[in-house]
Structures are given as structure tokens and as C-alpha cells.
Prior knowledge:
The structure is a single chain. The chain contains 3 helices and 8 strands. It has helices at residues 154-159, 168-172, 200-266, and strands at residues 29-34, 42-48, 51-55, 81-84, 90-94, 97-99, 163-165, 179-181. A hairpin with a 2-residue loop joins strand 2 and strand 3. It is rod-shaped, with a radius of gyration of 43 Å. The termini are far apart.
Amino acid sequence: MLLQPFASNTGTSKNTALHLIGGGPGSYQYIQFVSQDLSGVNMRLQAEGQNMTAFHGSTGSFIVSKYGDSTATGTVISGGYETRHPTGISLRIAGNSISTPRDGARDIYITPQGTGAVVSGAADGTRYNFVASDFVKQSSRDTKTNIVPLERGLDNIRQLRPVSYNKIDKLNQGIFEIEKGFIAEDSLMVATVDGKGIYDSHITAYLVKGVQELDQKVIAIDSLATTANSTANDAMNIAIQVDSEVQQMKNKIIVLEKEIKTLKGAV
């Protein structure tokens, strides 16, 4: 079907429209697309009041793309885009913000395919900061296997090489900021598999294990000190006792000397 204005029309009269008028409040105005094959797929573009809805088949998809481009290049340009689950939970993308309704605890899941990673950065390896009030790392026993107690902490800590440095990408932006941390290639015991990143959790585990090892040494030293103090106290008590006995012997000698003098005088 082709709709076009008459050649003699001028101004806004040149506008062309397929004008669907509803039957009143609650009525629909829609364009229905019906497949003629046996599957009977139906699709529909529908307007009701202030809402515009696009319906598609249960296994289909709704794609927006520039005319003449591949559907894989689909683009939606809007002040805000919101997708909603039948339960009422929605995700809104507007400007530079991805948000959920602020009506309680709402989680946003970013799920890469396969072994992909969530990366803040560029394909050339440049990485950018994640900023949040807190980061929570999943650490439940339910998600782990082959759990073995860490044996060494201090030995691994001694192998770490803390350094200060400048980030090249920041210098390129005119930001001169001295940072502190580690070089992955120089601290392989805490490096990622590709040798380019650092696992902070590995460093934390070694630090905690190292503190525990130092704590055991302090306990052992404290025990030795307690034993030494006890031995010293015992020796001191013995010395006091010996000194008392010596003093008693001196007193007895003095008494005996007096008695001897008395006996000599009597003779």
C-alpha cells in the first residue's frame, strides 16, 4: 500500500500518514503482521493511550537498525531506554547511567559469555578504574573445590617486590600521579595466568598467613620468656634462701665465739 499526498498539496498538506483512530479509552490502535506459513507467527505494533508496544514471536527479537545497514549494527538513540521483566523489575539506561528502580535492594548482573571477563578499559590492554563504595568478592565454600590450607606466608611475602610507578595512560592524559603496588612480571606468585595482572586476594592471603606465622613465633618467644622468668624467679628465691641460711650460720658463729671467750675466761 502506498500513501502519498496529491501533487497540488502544499505546506503541511504534503504530510502523509496512516492514521489509526481508536474507539475510545482502553482501545488499541495497531498494525498486525501475520505469517502465512503453518507456524502462524504473529507480530504487532500497538498503541494504547501514551504507551507504544511492539510484540514479536516468542523466539523472535525486536531490532532497531539504520536503514540499509546490517541488523547487527542496530542502534537505539533516546533520552532513556528501559527494559522490564514481567515481575516488574526493570533496568534503565539513560545518558551515562545504568540503574534499577530505587525501591529496595536491586542487583545488576553483568554476565560475559564463556570465559569472558568484565573489563573496564580498552582492547589494547589499557585499564580504567572501577569506583564504588564497596567491592564484594564471592567467596562461599559452595563455589570452590580442592580447598587446601595455605602453608607458607612469610616466604612468599619476602619474594614480593613493592614499587612506586606512574601509569603510562595517565601520563598521556597529563596526570602525574605516583602510585604504589607491584609489577606482575616481578611477582609471579600473585600474578594472573596471563602474567599481566595482580590478584589482590592472593596478596591478602599471604599477608594473613604471614601474620599468623609471626603470631606463632611471638607466642613461642613469650613462652620462652615466661619460662626464663620463672627460672630466674626460682633462682632468686633459692639465692634469698641461701643468703638467709648463710646469715643464720654467721649468727651461730658469733654466738659460738662468745661462748668460747667466756669459757677461756673461766679457765
